[in-house]
Amino acid sequence: MKTKEQLFSAHPNKPDVSSILEVPVRATALLVLAHGAGAGMYHRNMQRIAEVMHGNRIATLRYQFPFGERGGGRDSLEVSLSTVERAVGLAKMLEPRLPLFAGGHSFGGRMTSIAASENRLCNVKGFVFFAFPLHPRGKPANERAQHLPKIKAPLLFFTGTKDPLFTFALFQPVYQQIRQSATIQTLDAVDHGYRVSKRSRKTNEDVFDEMGRLTRQWLDQL
């Protein structure tokens, strides 16, 4: 495993933020992973996502949003989008030979999707969204997905059947617009933080292993 940790500039008005590049032997792709609103890139869920990607020959670049680096409240939309854009640029610079993909968990995936819809992410061949937050808890709506049809690249969604931030019926009108490019993988008995209801889950496969395996399959079919 090749590992490189470094700071990079997320936005002209913000201090530099951390990143960690991990490239397994015989990697075939590089996935840029953004963290969620509640925890940074070192959270165990982010680490587990990275680990299962590595086991499937997918390199990762995890990075911090400025608020994740310093703590405190979230940054403005422009700062968040700038961070995504610059992280993707860093990944391309560090590993120019690997096909580039981007996404992230919850908030990080949503920010990546907005940046992609605004054509701010160059050379990205597809996007992977882990627990995409379709709406706030207890406020079902689909406005957060209205920009998705603007993304002209393959999309992969991992969504738990017990995720309170994703209502499948509300996503359907958007999905009908992106069905040619989007793949939705439902994670049985899994909530927004990847906690599993073991009593109702129909498989013994670890949920992170499942996401790694299905990401590998998706990449192989592109």
Compose a concise summary of this entry.
By secondary structure, the protein is an alpha/beta fold. The protein has six helices and eight strands. The chain has an eight-stranded mixed β-sheet with strand order 1-2-4-3-5-6-7-8, with helices on both faces.
CATH class: Alpha Beta
Q: Please report which band the strand proportion falls in: under 5%, 5-15%, 15-25%, 25-35%, 35-45% or over 45%.
A: 15-25%
Write down the Rg: 16 Å
* Assigned CATH superfamily: Alpha/Beta hydrolase fold, catalytic domain
Through-space gap between termini:
25 Å
Provide the residue-averaged pLDDT.
96
According to CATH, what is the topology? Rossmann fold
Kindly name the structural category: alpha/beta
How many β-strands, per DSSP?
A: 8
Shape: globular
Give a structural overview:
This protein has a single domain (2-221), classed as Alpha/Beta hydrolase fold, catalytic domain (Rossmann fold, 3-Layer(aba) Sandwich). Helix content is 32%, strand content 23%. It contains six helices and eight strands; from the N terminus they run βββαβααβαββαβα. The longest helix is centred in the middle third of the chain and has 18 residues, at 77-94. The two termini are 25 Å apart.
Observed structural traits:
222 residues, alpha/beta, Rossmann fold, 8-stranded mixed β-sheet, 8 strands, 32% helix, globular
Secondary-structure blueprint:
Elements: E1 2-8, E2 17-23, E3 29-34, H1 44-55, E4 58-63, H2 66-70, H3 77-94, E5 100-105, H4 107-117, E6 124-130, E7 155-160, H5 168-178, E8 182-187, H6 207-221
Parallel strand pairs: 3-4, 3-5, 5-6, 6-7, 7-8
Antiparallel strand pairs: 1-2, 2-4
Helix pairs in contact: 1-6, 3-4
